Amino acid sequence: MIWTGYGRTGYTMGVARSESGKLAGPWIQQEEPVYSENGGHGMLFESFDGKLMGVLHAPNNRESRPHIFEMEDTGTGLSIKKEL
Fold it and tell me: pLDDT tens digits, residue range 15-57?
């Protein structure tokens, strides 16, 4: 599950995984945020060529615009590989 909240640098997007694979959890929070540069409200999707992608808005103000990333799911965490 990805989520957005406020951190030291503004909006921050984090991720938590259900240890059981079920909605009831228990949920394990990834130690480091996925994105911590004042952006969030992200979504994950798969590209036409099978890559895991993410999109979010940043910065969290009137100048906000979409940012698209290639993501990596390691099985125990989620991280940004590169911004497109």
Answer: 999 999 999 999 999 999 999 999 999 999 999 999 999 999 9
Q: Which of 4-13, 40-49, 53-62 has the lowest mean pLDDT?
A: 4-13
Domain limits for position 76: 2-83
Angle at 6 between CA 77 and CA 76, to 5 degrees: 5
Percentages (nearest 5) of helix, strand, coil residues in the chain: 0, 55, 45
Residue 47 burial class via C-beta count within 10 angstroms: exposed 0-12, middle 13-18, buried 19 and up: exposed
Count up the domains in the chain and report the number.
1
Q: How far apart are alpha carbons 39 and 2 in whole angstroms?
A: 13
